[in-house]
Amino acid sequence: MPDIDRRHYGLDWLRLIAFGLLIFYHVGMFYVPWFWHVKSNYVSPAAEPLMLALNPWRLALLFFISGVALRFAVDKAPSARRFAVARTRILGLPLLFGVFVLVMPQTYFQLRQSGDFSGSILDFYLPYLQGRLPVFTPTWNHLWYIAYLLAYTLLIIPVAPLLRRAARSRLFQRYARTPAAILFLTILPFMGYEATLMHWFPITDDFIHDWGQHAHRLTILLLGFLVAKDRGFWNSVGRLLPITVVLAILLHFWGESLARAVLGDSVAGATVRLAFQVLYAWSCILAMLGFGQRYLDRPSKALQYLTGAIFCYYVVHQTITVVAGYYLTQLHLGVWREFTLLVAITVFGCVISYELGRRTGAFGVLIGIQNHRGPVAKRESPSDERAPARPAQAEA
């Protein structure tokens, strides 16, 4: 990365890839046996291996990129107060609109499919607001990511000067310029979280009691913030690229079986398996960062358009998938025809939402569109925007 202060187009592409994987992951949740809002008639474990391969790193990559983007945005902001107000508006308004309007149909169709509610969606809305339903409402469902990101952003803004100084410290510079340290030392805190906090505070997405998840998400976001403009770190990521690809493949297919064969179910075996699991996730992230830096670091019209659209896609996609899936599976079309239609409807609905939103001021803001300049709106700021998630986790 020759110019650390210029826009990271490779990270923009990776952000699109991470959000795209998230959208398709939620389509997959409609088909695998894990709990989700609505389920297909064709539930099967067939897609589980792919989803389990993505689970440990897809959201961690997104939070890491969020930290990089936050560093660039904070450094360009005219004042900390103005930046905090702007970011609260950009993230807070879609979150509120989602909780009180956009997410509501997800719970409605969930309870209709389970047989716990049979009235109209208008009859459903007041009990939804009042919390008089068999599930917790009102809720943010998949939009928990926005709430967490906003909270972490507001936490980091006041201490940004201290974080910049920490990034320039001799100790951190030695870490950033040592590929082996980046690869192996970085996993230590996450191993600690998995061995302690994640047992005491399992993932809930309720924010208040989610300390294990907070530790994961905030740490990876802070790491992205610290290394965003560190040339040594990005050079190390480039040097690690072949190693991280091979390591990720080996650990995914043979890591756990090797540790179990050599050490069995002993404490040492459990520790090595945990290390391999976390190292697999981090190797995938480093491989993606290296790939983006080497092969994707260039602008394009498609990138410009999708960078402006992808956060809107994220905000609206799950409601589209839930509603479409609820009705499609009643038609008994067969799994592949149903799946193809569900993907097409989800993508088409995201595109239409963005195209409508960027042509209307208030609605666009509510569904996560930041800039409004008519039909040819352009983004000028770096990309803005989940640590391993468990298979049974419905949201994310």
Automatic annotation (TrEMBL):
Name of the protein in its database record: Acyltransferase
Composition bias type Basic and acidic residues, residue spans: 377-388
Record keyword Transmembrane helix present: yes
GO MF term list: acyltransferase activity, transferring groups other than amino-acyl groups
PANTHER family tied to this protein: BLR4337 PROTEIN, GLUCANS BIOSYNTHESIS PROTEIN C
Region (Disordered): 375-396
Entries under InterPro entries matching the protein: Acyl_transf_3_dom (IPR002656), Glucan_succinyl_AcylTrfase (IPR050623)
TM annotation in the entry: 12-36, 56-74, 86-104, 143-163, 175-191, 211-228, 237-254, 274-291, 303-327, 339-357
Acyltransferase domain span: 9-354
Keywords: Acyltransferase, Membrane, Transferase, Transmembrane, Transmembrane helix
Entry superkingdom: Bacteria
Organism expressing this protein natively: Stakelama marina
